[in-house]
């Protein structure tokens, strides 16, 4: 593992690291914030998954999460959103290929060898960070924005009891029914809708739900509401009797100003769930 | 005045606007955060001046100031750091020309017609924003980072009683004695060191001081300590018996992670001074 940068922040350290990933078959870069409490003992972890076009960096510099993480003694991990590099397939569209891994394991050419973001985030990167840093693998929570909200919710529901709590900012809530999803799932997984269901938070919510609290924030003036389909997730959460909260925030759009505005609530929500573990 | 964007943030609005500036003879872009309190009455203003290479955008998305401004009912203004555009002179160096206006009124070619950032920030932009937005001109404070810390301190001391309080993050504290200053002051103002003194915070602090409280934070692991020369400012503040606080923060570097880490303290410091007006 190579250190790209380490900056003191809020009494802790905001680092950026690069490592060879078996899951994606190439080098991956991620951000990790260690709060001051990590100097004394292992700290709980909040995973933050980013949206379309993002790298590890966007949320790390724009979401303002470190202040709240330091206050609550949580580490933050910011994975990249796809494999990258010259040998990695890409697409001209911003919502396919590099920067748009959709948190699935691709089975179709030309994506299959590298686009294995599900395994990267749930297996490969955890193995690395829990080995190298002062982090408590028994206390993990997950959140994300847009495509990353989709990733956070589907991974929370798909990984048994690993995550104590799950939240999302404006998640792509029903990708199997949306232009943000159908193209990508068909491209990465093939024309086999049966394999898509585990990558649809609304379907998963309806079928299995999540064994822990859920918090979802959605901007009421989000320019992508038709693609995000939050009503399907709200419906499924209520139908499932899922322990959780779905909040429609009037006037907020899809930007990081929206994410930053409610980041404190999300970090405190996860901190509380993690304290109960 | 043209609206470039307006995003809901922390219950208020983060806007970006463009306007024709008489001071710089061209279009200028700035960011302005209006807290929720501005919907009911005029709110006090905290000016934030940015550093070398920055536009209006860097602090607006990276410094995390809006959360604290909303909590304290302050507006934030983020001016650009220089005139820009095809007709505007520039230099190959990152620390001269566009992105590096140094908050002076240039008198020398090729800079003189456009590089009038002192007048832009102290006259032109105030006239516009106090006319267009729900802001209280009687309650202003100023801060900044690096070159912007230099601008904030020199403008605070050079504008009589306009600003209730002044603060800086890692300011260029003694430009007349530093490679971050001598080249620029000579270029913009000519080889006339007598005209440079009012643009040197350490000299101004020693000669006149500031009629209000001052807060300065400096990272102890800042990679530019030799250019910033904070010891000259600390010396001058103490010699002047300036009401204020100079804090050396061990381990912090020059990045926005440093700025964000202490932004809450600065906003609260200014809010308290503004409440006393």
Notes on the structure:
The structure is a homodimer of 277-residue chains. By secondary structure, chain A is α/β, with parallel strands linked by helices. Chain A has one domain (2-276): 3-Layer(aba) Sandwich (Rossmann fold), CATH 3.40.50. Helix content of chain A is 33%, strand content 25%. The first copy, chain A, contains nine helices and nine strands. A nine-stranded mixed beta sheet of chain A has the order 1-2-3-5-4-6-7-8-9, sandwiched between helices. In chain A, α2 (65-72) runs parallel beside α9 (256-275) and α6 (201-207) runs parallel beside α8. The longest helix of chain A has 20 residues, at 256-275. Chain A is globular and about 50 Å long. The two termini of chain A are 30 Å apart. Chains A and B meet through β1 and α9 of A and β1 and α9 of B.
């Amino acid at each position: 593992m190579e250190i790209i940068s380490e900056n003191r922040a809020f009494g802790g350290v905001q680092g950026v690291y690069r490592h060879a990933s078996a899951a994606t078959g190439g080098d991956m870069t991620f951000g990790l914030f260690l709060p001051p409490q990590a100097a004394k003992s292992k700290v709980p972890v909040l995973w933050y998954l980013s949206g379309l076009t993002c790298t590890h960096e966007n949320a790390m510099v724009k979401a303002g999460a470190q202040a709240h993480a330091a206050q609550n003694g949580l580490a933050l991990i910011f994975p990249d959103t796809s494999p990258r590099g010259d040998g990695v397939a890409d697409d001209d569209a911003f919502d396919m290929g590099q920067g748009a891994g959709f948190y699935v394991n691709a089975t179709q050419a030309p994506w299959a060898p590298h686009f294995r973001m599900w395994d990267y985030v749930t297996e490969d990167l955890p193995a690395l960070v829990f080995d190298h840093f002062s982090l408590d693998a028994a206390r993990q929570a997950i959140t994300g924005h847009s495509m990353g909200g989709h990733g956070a919710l589907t991974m929370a529901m798909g990984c048994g009891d690993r995550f104590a709590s799950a939240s999302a900012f404006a998640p792509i809530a029903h990708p199997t029914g949306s232009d943000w999803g159908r193209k990508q799932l068909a491209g990465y997984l093939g024309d086999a809708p049966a394999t898509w269901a585990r990558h649809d938070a609304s379907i998963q919510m309806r079928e299995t739900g999540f064994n822990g609290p859920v918090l979802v924030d959605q901007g009421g003036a989000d320019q992508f509401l038709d693609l995000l389909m939050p009503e399907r997730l709200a419906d499924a959460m209520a139908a499932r009797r899922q322990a959780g909260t779905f909040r429609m925030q009037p006037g907020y759009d899809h930007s990081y100003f929206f994410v930053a505005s409610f980041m404190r609530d999300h970090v405190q929500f996860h901190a509380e769930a993690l304290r109960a573990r």
